[in-house]
Each structure stands twice: as C-alpha cells, then as structure tokens.
Design a protein that fits this description.
This is 1-(5-phosphoribosyl)-5-[(5-phosphoribosylamino)methylideneamino] imidazole-4-carboxamide isomerase. It catalyses: 1-(5-phospho-beta-D-ribosyl)-5-[(5-phospho-beta-D-ribosylamino)methylideneamino]imidazole-4-carboxamide = 5-[(5-phospho-1-deoxy-D-ribulos-1-ylimino)methylamino]-1-(5-phospho-beta-D-ribosyl)imidazole-4-carboxamide. It is found in: Cytoplasm. The protein is α/β, with parallel strands linked by helices. Helices cover 37% and strands 30% of the residues. The protein starts with a strand and ends with a helix.
C-alpha cells in the first residue's frame, strides 16, 4: 500500500481541518512548498494536493499548486479541488501533475466523467466524499440521496486512475478509519481505491492494507506527530 501525505491548501497555507469544518482548523503551515519539499526529502514519492478554497468557491490557490508541482521535488502528485472542466484538467496536467482528482462534477455528472476519463485514461481520480455512506459534494456542503456503493458500481468500465474515498465523518479526528466502508468499496470497485479520513496510527494503516486498499491519504496524523513518517516509510514505501 502507498501512503500519501495530504497537502491541503487554504489562503495560501497548508492546513488541516477537523471533520471538514473550516471553523476547526488545527494545523496551519505558511509555506506549502517547503512542506512538499520536506515530504520529498523524507522519502515520500506521492502527494495529495487539494485546493480547499477552489473546492468551496472561496478562491484559488492555483499559483501555489503550480509551485508545488514545478518545484516540490516529489515524483508523483495528484491534485484536486474545484476541478470542473477540461481546461482545469489540462492546466494541472500541464504543470506536471500525475493525476487530477475530480469530485463534485464527476459525481453529479457521470456522462462528463466518462468523457473525461476516456480523454485522459489513467490520469483521472474520482473523489467520492462520504458521510455515513451518503455521498457529499460541493465542499462537503451538499448531501446526495445515494449510497456510495451504488456510485462505485456505476463506475465499472470507466478508465479511471483510481477512486479516492474520504470518510468525511472521520476526517482529521485520528480516531480510526471507517473500515467497513473501505472494505465494501474495495470489494465493489474495479479500479484502485485510495482511502482517506481518520487514520491515526500505524495499526489503522495496516488494517487498510489488509483490506486491499491501494493507497491511504494521511494528513492530521502526520502533521501532529501521531504517526512517525519514518515508521511509515519503513513499512510502506512502495505501491
């Protein structure tokens, strides 16, 4: 399993939020490029970069994203947050991203997602943000009347690079992942599954690995020292 540090961008800084709530920001680092370079120096090969302001319509950190992609020194970077058209995908890939993460429009407009994945096979990751098995969109503010497993089954045959499932109800709390959710998603998916939300210990990572998860995005636990990045790299440094 691949462990992927999260670099969440807000107002030009790298932040970590609890439960996806903007009012509950626990970590703020003012130099995201330095953060990316530090993850690279330690030995992480992939980063998960999200423009939270773009995702929620509050603004844009596009210049920061470009700086990380061009100068962060990381082999692979997947980028998301407010990506809702092909121009944005072209721009991010042009900066050097390995994959582009699409959320709201990809979930709400399956025809567009299919066309996008066909144009960029193996370069699009669909983000399915989930709160108690229900899919949420638009920066976690809108809940759809559908179960995430139904969504996953509808994706069969779409040439995605992966499916990123975030357990929003566990996000940033370090109280453990939603293992039944992740196990069911892995069983239902025909593309690699990346888990996010709630990882707080090495045992959480091992549990995800045991359930066939391809990758795990980790934020709060790495930034607060709850998980030692060197211990992660000793055990998980390859796909």
């Amino acid at each position: 399993m691949l462990v992927i540090p999260a670099v969440d961008l807000r107002d030009g800084a790298c932040v970590q939020l609890v439960g996806g709530e903007y009012a509950d920001e626990r970590v703020r680092l003012d130099d995201p490029l330095a953060v990316a370079r530090e993850w690279s120096r330690l030995g992480f090969h992939r980063l998960h970069v999200v423009d939270l302001d773009a995702a929620t319509g509050r603004g844009s950190n596009a210049s920061v994203v470009e700086e990380i992609l061009r100068h962060g020194g990381v082999d692979e970077v997947q980028v998301g947050g407010g990506v809702r058209d092909e121009d944005a995908v072209d721009r991010i890939l042009g900066y050097g991203a390995t994959a582009v993460v699409v959320g709201t429009r990809g979930v709400e407009d399956p025809d567009w997602l299919g066309e996008l994945a066909a144009r960029y096979p193996g370069q699009i990751v669909l983000a399915a943000d989930v709160r108690e098995r229900r899919v949420v969109t638009r920066g976690w503010q809108h809940t759809l009347p559908r179960n995430v497993i139904d969504l996953v089954e509808e994706l069969h045959g779409v040439p995605l690079a992966g499916l990123l499932v975030t357990a929003v109800h566990r996000e940033g709390q370090m109280l453990g992942t939603d293992l039944p959710l992740m196990e069911d998603v892995v069983d239902a998916s025909d593309v690699p599954v990346i888990a996010s939300g709630g990882v707080g210990s090495m045992n959480d990572l091992r549990a995800l690995d045991d359930r066939g998860v391809w990758g795990a995005v980790v934020g709060m636990a790495l930034y607060t020292g709850a998980i030692d990045p060197r211990a992660v790299l000793d055990e998980y440094n390859d796909e």
